[in-house]
Amino acid sequence: MKVSIIGAGNVGATTAQRLAELDIADVVMLDVVEGLPQGKALDIAQAAPVMGYDVDVTGTNDYRDIADSDIVIVTAGIARKPGMDRDDLLAINIKIIREVCANIREHAPGSIVMAVTNPLDVTTYAAVKYMQQERGRVFGMSGLLDSSRFATFIAKEIGCSVKDVDAMVLGGHGDSMVPLPEYTTISGIPLPQLLDRKTIDRLVQRTVNAGAEIVGHLKTGSAFYAPSAAVAMMTEAILKDTKRIVPASVYLDGEYGLRDVCLGVPVRIGKGGAEKVIELELTAEQEQALKRSADEVRQGISKI
Ligand SMILES: NC(=O)c1ccc[n+]([C@@H]2O[C@H](COP(=O)([O-])OP(=O)(O)OC[C@H]3O[C@@H](n4cnc5c(N)ncnc54)[C@H](O)[C@@H]3O)[C@@H](O)[C@H]2O)c1
Ligand SMILES: O=C(O)C[C@H](O)C(=O)O
């Protein structure tokens, strides 16, 4: 098995480290900066004897090295700084996505592509169009991260283990994301039975702002530990064909009444990528929120 990661920055390199520690595939990191992927890959490889993994981790600036990848993860692009929205990254990152996808098409044409670069739903849409692959083989990571954040805040509030919280966040990876308290459970108990509406609303708001909260602390970039954890889990689900069900950004073709847009919805992840969209029954209010989120993503799509 082989996974290539385009962009050897914070998310890319941390993902490489997590995948190496899972010991499931050789990892190639590619970046435009000379020496950066090579140096980070050597560093990760030299941890293998201590950590006990056998996979190869290499760095390169040459797309020929991604040939025969099972999965290509795209983290190349700029990250936001305080005061910026993810949409402010669009003009620069869309050019990068176009160039990266052209190279993936040339050098690793059959691979599954996972977009990570922001603004996520718009770059995923662009990747879907540029790659011209079977639906589900090109998708974006976002909802698993947002759900993980929601679950973290819920566990802290209730004072329970995060392992017992199963949270669900749909919609675009932006201010219009749609956390679903009604589809969030704690050991099978629906969240609204354990917390009052005002507390849930506060946690929802913190989840929506979670990326910006970290940007505000870091000042020079954005989150990468939790994002890389989500990317690694989804990569493992593909390589091991585990059929995990998580929210991810996929091209919608009528599901949830939405067409020709990428948006976070629950999907089954297996060897075919995002193999199946799972349609939840939504209230009128939740449906409206999802539609508003789709409209926001469409505004970004109209600029590419
Ligand atoms: N989907 C999500 O939930 C999520 C989470 C975290 C970060 N992100 C996004 O992921 C992207 C990367 O974040 P980061 O923190 O790793 O940023 P970073 O600045 O640490 O790393 C980005 C890397 O991309 C490289 N790069 C730039 N142009 C390239 C090109 N044309 N080809 C190959 N590599 C290129 C840079 O040299 C750099 O090493 C950002 O757009 C960020 O907003 C998304
Ligand atoms: O907030 C960002 O810009 C990065 C990422 O989308 C996140 O949610 O952490």
Automatic annotation (TrEMBL):
What is the reaction catalyzed?
(S)-malate + NAD(+) = oxaloacetate + NADH + H(+)
Which terms are listed as keywords in the entry? NAD, Oxidoreductase, Tricarboxylic acid cycle
The record lists NAD(+) as bound by: G7, A8, G9, N10, V11, G12, D31, N93, V116, T117, N118
> What processes in GO biological process is this protein linked to?
lactate metabolic process; tricarboxylic acid cycle
All copies of the Lactate/malate dehydrogenase N-terminal domain together span 1-140
UniProt key word NAD: yes
* Gene3D superfamilies membership: Lactate dehydrogenase/glycoside hydrolase, family 4, C-terminal, NAD(P)-binding Rossmann-like Domain
Q: Does the keyword Hydrolase apply?
A: no
Active site, UniProt feature: H173 (proton acceptor)
Instruction: Give every Lactate/malate dehydrogenase C-terminal domain span.
Output: 145-303
Annotated InterPro entries: L-lactate/malate_DH, Lactate/malate_DH_C, Lactate/malate_DH_N, Lactate_DH/Glyco_Ohase_4_C, Malate_DH_type3, NAD(P)-bd_dom_sf
Q: What EC number(s) are associated with this protein in UniProt? A: 1.1.1.37
Residues that, per the record, bind substrate: R80, R86, N118, R149
* One Gene Ontology term of the molecular function aspect: L-malate dehydrogenase (NAD+) activity
Could you tell me what this protein does? Catalyzes the reversible oxidation of malate to oxaloacetate.
Family assignment from sequence similarity? Belongs to the LDH/MDH superfamily.
Q: Which PANTHER family match?
A: L-2-HYDROXYCARBOXYLATE DEHYDROGENASE (NAD(P)(+)), L-LACTATE DEHYDROGENASE
Instruction: Please identify the protein, giving its name as recorded.
Output: Malate dehydrogenase
UniProt organism field: Methanolobus chelungpuianus
